[in-house]
Amino acid sequence: MRIDLSIVSAAAGGSRTPRGYLAKPAGIGPFPGVVLIHEAFGLDDVKRRRHADRLTAAGYLTLAVELDSDDGARDCLVSTMR
Questions:
Q1: What are the structural domain ranges in the chain?
Q2: pTM, whole model, 2 decimals?
Q3: DSSP letters along 6-61, please?
Q4: What percentage of the chain exceeds 70 in pLDDT?
Q5: What is the pLDDT of residues 33-44, one digit of tens each?
């Protein structure tokens, strides 16, 4: 499930249009949770399927955040490295 994180991010002074991918295990929670952070090339289908969905299959509620939603990979990398 793709989710919009803009309200939470704007309140914290972050990106205007952050997005993410939320994968929820089957059944009734509560579930342990994981925040998945992508590498330099962003969040793609491979990371969603291979990593987020694999963690969810193991019973974890997984939020994969797209850190470069607003300004692209370059700005994400520059701000992260600072």
A1: 2-81
A2: 0.64
A3: HHHHHHTT--SS-EEEEE--SSS----EEEEE--TT---HHIIIIIIHHHHHTT-E
A4: 56
A5: 998 887 766 677
